[in-house]
Specification:
By secondary structure, the chain is an alpha/beta fold. The chain has two domains: 300 residues, TIM Barrel; 34 residues, no CATH class. It contains 13 helices and ten strands. It has an eight-stranded parallel β-barrel with strand order 3-4-5-6-7-8-9-10, surrounded by six helices. Strands 1-2 form a two-stranded antiparallel sheet. Strand 1 and strand 2 form a beta hairpin. Helix 8 runs antiparallel to helix 11. The longest helix is centred in the last third of the chain and has 18 residues. It starts with a strand and ends in a 20-residue tail after the last helix.
Length: 358
């Protein structure tokens, strides 16, 4: 296993984290207590020290199973959970309100059988609750010792920047991580969020790095998903552009063949080479799949591998990012004078004004 710091903190976490959506009676895996405990211990034996869950996973059952599995080893791992999604039809058991967050942490601590969580994350933006209410509550939890670090998930760039600015202005504990979807068939994070994370030192924790299992290579064009796979039991987990997705998996398979590796391992290794990524969260359903996923930390993709994967999966550059890059790295002579090494291979970004051939 290899390790990185959690965002701008000094906390050390494994490059592969164990996800837990597959724990409990659901269509995502349905692992019972025995299987959950076996997987958790197996992950720890292979150097994984970072486990991520959420109160909403099977409405608390995932946390309960995980808490039982962590008996005797809780202090050896970095434990993360999330709050905000509805836990019942009661409207006050949903959202990033003070009431729900306070109730959420107490419930999670009981299910996890611990007196604190190392990373507490707001599961998504809450447009019905004042942001200051959410941020002050998270700050209170850190000061009370129930939470060590805080993070967010599924924020837009402006929402994340606004939250950090508010925390700075009010002297509150700051977010250090962002749990976001990112994969070879879902690279929208690169439009703005990735550069935001680099600028602020936010560590990206990648959820669904295999696009709900699509990048495992189990699926074939024109064929029904094999029985027992996530797509056959739970359907499509994240949006896909079918035409591009199949082209991506073809490229992934070619790279995997060159390295005598699986497509899943290649897809994960590509993510670990991307900017601002701290850890990828894998929700394996078998020990064999977990072992293969962990193997991604030792797979070194070369420049040709990255070029092949990037060229087929590149989503393009939307406005205003292309204008920012055009002005900042193509048309401004100062960078060429100050950092000529950046331009040895044609520049850090293509000049789109000169590429159309008619």
């Amino acid at each position: 296993m290899k390790y990185r710091t959690l965002g701008r903190t000094g906390l050390i976490v494994s490059e592969v984290a164990l996800g837990t959506m597959q724990f409990g009676r659901n269509r995502m895996g349905g692992l019972d207590q025995e299987a959950t405990t076996r997987m958790v211990r197996h992950a720890l034996d292979r150097g994984v020290n970072f486990i991520d869950t959420a109160d909403v996973y099977t409405r608390g059952e995932s946390e309960t199973l995980l808490g039982n599995a962590l008996k005797g080893v809780r202090e050896e791992i970095v434990l993360a959970t999330k709050v905000r999604m509805p836990m019942s039809d009661n409207p006050n058991r949903s959202g990033a309100t003070r009431v729900n967050i306070m109730r959420g942490i107490e419930s999670s601590l009981k299910r996890l059988q611990t007196d604190h969580v190392d990373l507490y994350q707001v599961h998504s933006w809450d447009s019905s609750t004042p942001l200051e209410e959410t941020l002050r509550t998270f700050d209170d939890l850190v000061r009370q010792g129930k939470v060590r670090y805080i993070g967010f998930s599924n924020y837009l760039s402006w929402q994340a920047a606004h939250a950090l600015d508010t925390q700075e202005r009010l002297g509150l504990e700051k977010f250090v991580t962002a749990q976001m979807y990112y994969s070879l068939v879902g690279r929208g994070l690169e439009h703005e969020f990735q550069s935001f994370a680099e600028h602020y030192g936010i560590g990206i924790l990648v959820w669904s790095p295999l696009a709900g299992g699509f990048l495992s290579g189990k699926y074939e064009r024109g064929k029904s998903p094999p029985r027992g796979t996530r797509y056959s039991e739970a359907g499509v987990f994240v949006p896909l552009d079918p035409e591009q997705a199949w082209a991506v998996i073809d490229a992934v398979r070619k790279v995997a063949e060159r390295h005598s590796a699986t497509p899943a391992r290649v897809a994960l290794a590509w993510l670990l080479a991307r900017p601002a990524v701290t850890s990828v969260i894998v929700a394996a359903r078998t020990l064999e799949h977990l072992d293969d996923n962990i193997g991604a930390v030792d797979l070194a993709l070369d420049a040709e591998d990255m070029r092949q994967l990037d060229s087929v999966s590149d989503p393009g550059v939307p406005y205003p990012k292309w204008m920012v890059l055009q002005h900042d790295t193509v048309e401004d002579p100062r960078l060429k004078v100050l950092h000529p090494e950046l331009y040895e291979n044609g520049g850090p970004w293509r000049d789109l004004n000169r590429e159309w051939k008619g």
